[in-house]
Design brief:
heterotrimer; A alpha/beta (about 400); B mainly alpha (about 325); C mainly alpha (about 300); A: alpha/beta; Rossmann fold; 2 domains; 6-stranded mixed beta sheet; about 20% strand; C: about 300 residues; mainly alpha; ABC transporter involved in vitamin B12 uptake, BtuC; two-stranded antiparallel ribbon; two-stranded antiparallel sheet
């Protein structure tokens, strides 16, 4: 019997895996190494790539402008990525690998609330600070974690702006229908919207959910149509936002406002739907028309950031780009203020951070969540995405109520 | 068909598979005990996952490999086991034995209750019914607020210093699954399973009560998957339906068993080691293309080793015999 | 009450697509005993083929139906002839694994070629609809249903009347006898697999009008295809149609369940997989071979 081939294979397999530990990709010398598990494959691929773009843009800018200064010495920045395949569990394991094998100094967050949640657990256990810009679910921050910080506004805020806008119009919008995907983030968005509506005198006339893998939402739309809402809200992801908008068109559902938590801000939404995408609103973490003037150390205004993304990646800046870059900025300012690369000192600096950036104010509440930055409402007008709310940041007047289908 | 040909048909070296392969596997298991002493948390997670998949593969091997009832829903038991541990944890119980015992009991009970109607179906109908059960249970858990819904449940964990306890626990689960498979394969139970696989109706004529044995096989397979889930949950610290009822967790153990050698005792472990190990290495060296290479690797292995890796242990006649095996299944 | 009528219409319209998705899968499984896990990837390729043709040449999506059929048929034929054929007589699980690997390959290559951007096919008549009393019927979905019915009808005709079709049915009943009658089995296998892929391509084309395109888009349809296939009965064309319509209608009505017990909201829509599968189990218990199923080998 030939022992050799099989035993050799087995031995090689084990040796290979074990050898993985003997190559430290250390943050040696004068480089700060960040680790980032992102969804380069799987159903959040597009968003994962946008996240990576945001991180890379920051890294290249910083390295071209003298790096990060820590106690007088200049450090270059590098980011190590792994593909978490859009899976919660894989993201956490990769975070562990980044810390144990690649010896990263700090963690940048993955895309999505589910993945951010699991990675936060790892950051907590290993006591390595993580700043994320793409996981807005509040439950991440309700766990008492001390090492996780989120630069983006919480999930429940996503659709509040649209409701506030609707209420402020004349005649005011009063009834709301909400459909949501069944993942945790979308559910939080829906619950936040429902709570705000009820607390502000609006009536929720329909509320339902559908699985992430839904291939058809016609029946939900049929039921929704019967309740005749003024505002139709959807809390989901791009794929189902498209399904819902198509379905609303197909069944001739007329409402004054159509609002989505995810969708309108992605160029794919408008290109896929053509004219049927017009006048749709989306809650966004950022848009190119916000008027913040950021602290020195990076690109200071939104239009300049938009141009940088446009020049490098040849597409409009998506708020996923911006919020990812903002996460890096939080580290940048915190490290400089801490004057050290020690995880504890940087963590403490993050706790007391208070800066203004092109993205908005970055400041964390006691849980690590940035409740200080407002969300904006964007509306697609004639194929262009324009900020329409809050009034102070608006670049255009809102189109209200939405004209009938076929006239947009 | 002669008795010898029959024996050869149902598996190399009888239904336990190649003894040298099994000895190698036991040797590797002994080596794996040393992993925590390397003080590399990440490697510990990698091998712990391999052990977890091995346990699940053994479970599937019992119902799919030995009994011939290809189940696409064994992930249900894994998920049930994980949620058992989570519920116990949220009530203050942190004892791993308790997790495993409760998980095995619940999984076995579920297997028996669901198995009674479902095991009456044959072939693809059984397979899809089990797939359906997995999807349905995942759906239901996702909609149950009492179980955390889509947000999942956090579990209490031991502190960093004692973290290796999860590794050893998973090791014990995998070993248990392996030894149980060996014991069953050599017992009357094992032969009954194989008889059902080869010709269920003839087996019935010979007095083998197919229903009883099928349900037993499924219940034991459920217990293996459930135990793996019960250790996975606290080790991970967090579970949600997308993690515990994922389709991947369905396909991987099946793929591992097939690649390793279906219906053998060494096969599932070898397959788990190979596939999970390869996945890790590919992830490391091909950050953007790893899934592509993983797919290519599976295609190549299936074409080049259609009988599974365990077959390599029994290879006599070198390259020519191997070439013949590659052609063996051509239409 | 008109909600019931609307749901029925929604269900039938959705069901047509499920039927076409399941048809190719069912034929390959029923006749060749191969579970083709790459079926979802083939669907995706058909959808992208339509996308390319409509954007590059301005063709109407329905006109791309024959093209995506031919393209995917060729792909399927080649894959069977030069890859799967090596393990055609292996236990079903070996081919299962092979097609699993293939699907990973195809999806990831698509990811490289088309990037993860979401795309859509948006003809000028998209979204338009007409009313039948209180029920709104979208034109696109109606055209899709008609196309689905035509395709299943054509398939059934071809399988029963044409020479190759009869050879295929003979092979599935008894390989030995078929060979004795002069049928070249490996050729037939390649044709059947090609057919399955071609039908997947057609399903992809039809889907591209209602569903947005990403390299992963095939996954939910593969799983539903599994269920519909078995629901209707393996290897049966009428089975795929009936299974698809049944599934579509069940899903549509299940969505209307909307009750709250205490604080627990029970949403039929959220539980639609569970409900559809309970229906499947009930059907299988009453008719273990599916609604129209033949004997399993």
């Amino acid at each position: 019997m030939q022992l050799r081939p099989m035993a050799t294979v087995l031995a090689l397999a084990i040796l290979a895996t074990l050898s993985a530990r003997s190559v430290p990709v250390a943050a040696a010398g004068d480089t700060i190494l960040f680790g980032a598990p992102v969804s380069l494959t799987g159903n959040l691929t597009k968003e994962g790539h946008l996240t990576q773009e945001g991180y890379e843009l920051w890294k290249n800018y910083i390295n071209a402008h003298g790096g990060i200064k820590v106690a007088g010495k200049s450090y270059k920045v590098d980011i190590k990525y792994y593909d978490d395949e859009s899976k919660n569990d894989t993201s956490a394991q990769l975070a562990e690998r980044l810390i144990d094998q690649d010896h990263v100094n700090f963690l940048l967050g993955p895309y999505g609330s589910g993945t951010s949640f699991t990675v936060a657990g790892i950051a907590e256990r290993k006591k390595i600070p993580m700043v994320e810009g793409n996981g807005a679910a509040e439950r991440i921050f309700n766990q008492g974690f001390k090492y996780t910080f989120g630069v983006l506004s919480p999930a429940r805020r996503y659709l509040e702006g649209i409701l506030a806008l609707g209420k402020a119009q004349k005649p005011a919008a009063q009834t709301v229908a909400i459909t949501a995907a069944s993942d945790a983030f979308s559910q939080e968005v829906a619950q936040g919207a429902a709570a705000w509506a009820t607390a502000n005198g609006m009536k929720v006339v329909y509320s339902n959910k559908y699985p992430d893998t839904a291939t058809d939402v016609s029946s939900i739309i049929s039921a929704l149509k019967q309740t005749n809402p003024d505002i139709i809200l959807n809390a989901g992801h791009l794929q189902d936002a498209l399904l819902v908008q198509k379905g609303l068109r197909e069944q001739n559902v007329m409402a004054k406002i159509y609002g989505y938590s995810v969708g309108p801000d992605t160029p794919d939404f408008a290109t896929t739907l053509g004219n049927d995408a017009n006048d749709v609103m989306g809650g966004a973490q950022w848009s190119e028309s916000v008027k913040y003037h950021g602290d020195p150390g990076f690109i200071r205004t939104a239009p300049e950031y938009e141009k940088a993304i446009e020049d490098t990646y040849h597409h409009h800046a998506d708020y996923h780009n911006a919020e990812s870059t903002a996460a890096c900025l939080a580290f940048q300012y915190a490290i400089e203020r801490a004057g050290s690369l020690d995880p504890e000192k940087v963590r403490d600096a993050l706790v007391t951070l208070d800066v203004t950036t092109f993205f908005g104010i970055i400041k964390f509440d006691s849980r690590g969540l940035n409740v200080y930055k407002p969300m904006v409402v964007n509306q697609i007008q004639k194929g262009r995405l324009l900020t329409v709310w809050p009034i102070g940041l608006a670049a255009a007047k809102v189109i209200y109520p939405a004209p009938p289908w076929g006239q947009r | 068909m002669t008795a010898r040909a029959s024996a050869r048909r149902i598996g190399l070296g009888g239904i336990t598979g190649n003894p040298i392969a099994f000895a190698c596997v036991l040797g590797v298991m002994a080596l794996l005990l040393a992993v925590p002493s390397l003080h590399n948390d990440y490697l510990q997670v990698v091998f712990r996952n391999i052990l977890m998949y091995a346990a699940m593969a053994y479970g599937w091997n019992l119902i799919g490999g030995y009994t011939g009832y290809v189940s696409f829903g064994n992930v249900t038991f894994f998920g049930l086991g994980a949620y058992c541990a989570a519920v116990l944890s949220s009530h203050g119980v942190q004892n791993l034995f308790a997790y495993v015992l409760v998980a095995m009991a619940v999984a076995a009970l579920f297997a028996v209750v669901v198995g009674l109607p479902v095991l009456r179906l044959r072939g693809p109908y059984f397979g899809i019914a089990t797939l359906g059960i997995g999807l349905a249970v995942g759906d239901i858990v996702e909609n149950l607020d009492a179980l955390g819904g889509s947000s999942g449940i956090r579990l209490q964990q031991v502190d960093e210093a004692h973290f290796a306890v999860y590794y050893y626990a998973m090791w014990l689960v995998a070993l248990g699954a392996m030894l149980a498979t060996y014991a069953i394969a050599r017992s009357k139970l094992g032969y009954a399973f194989v008889a059902i696989r080869e010709n269920e109706d003839a087996a019935a004529v010979l007095g083998i009560s197919a229903t009883r044995y099928k349900i037993t096989a499924w219940a034991i397979s459920a217990m293996m998957a459930g135990a793996a889930g019960a250790i996975f949950a606290p080790a991970n610290g967090f579970i949600d339906p997308s993690i515990t009822f994922a389709t991947d967790s369905n396909v991987f153990p099946i793929a591992m068993t097939i690649l390793g050698g279906i219906g053998t005792v060494a096969g599932p472990f070898i397959g788990a080691l190979l596939l999970a190990g390869a996945n890790e290495l590919l992830q490391r060296y091909f950050v953007s293309g790893h899934t592509l290479f993983f797919g290519a690797m599976i295609v190549l292995i299936v074409l080049l080793l259609p009988r599974g890796l365990v077959w390599l242990f029994g290879l006599r006649g070198g390259a020519r015999a191997w070439l013949r095996s590659v052609q063996a299944y051509k239409a | 009450m008109h909600l019931v009528a609307q749901d029925l219409v929604n269900g039938i319209l959705a069901g047509g697509i499920f039927a076409v998705v399941a048809l190719g899968f069912s034929l390959v499984w029923g006749i060749m005993n191969i579970i083709n896990l790459a079926h979802g990837a083939f669907i995706m390729l058909g959808a992208y083929a339509t996308y390319q043709l409509t954007t590059s040449f301005g063709l109407d999506p329905f006109l791309t139906l024959p093209v995506s059929f031919v393209l995917l048929f060729a792909l399927g034929y080649l894959i069977q002839r030069f890859l799967i054929n090596w393990v055609a007589r292996a236990p079903i699980l070996v081919t299962f694994l092979l097609t699993f690997g293939l699907s990973l390959l195809i999806v990831n290559i698509a990811l490289i070629v088309w990037s993860p951007d979401t795309r859509g096919v948006h003809p000028p008549y998209a979204g338009t609809n007409f009313s039948l009393g209180d029920v709104t019927v979208p034109w696109v979905k109606l055209y899709t249903l008609v196309a689905a019915l035509l395709i299943t009808g054509l398939m059934q005709l071809w399988l029963t009347r044409s020479r190759t079709g009869r050879a295929i049915r003979a092979t599935s009943m008894d390989i030995g006898a078929a060979q004795l009658s002069g049928v070249r089995v490996s050729q037939i296998y390649a044709v059947v697999f090609g057919l399955g892929a071609g039908l997947a391509g057609v399903a992809g084309t039809l889907l591209s009008l209602s569903y947005s395109l990403t390299p992963n888009m095939g996954d939910p349809f593969l799983i539903k295809g599994f269920v519909v296939c078995v629901l209707g009965g393996l290897g049966s064309v009428q089975g795929a149609l009936i299974g698809g319509l049944t599934y579509g209608i069940v899903e549509a009505f299940a969505t209307q369940i909307d009750v709250t017990i205490g604080t627990q909201h029970i949403s039929g829509s959220g539980l639609q997989d569970a409900i559809a599968l309970v229906v499947l189990l009930i059907v299988l218990i009453v008719r273990p071979r599916g609604i129209m199923g033949r004997a399993v080998a």
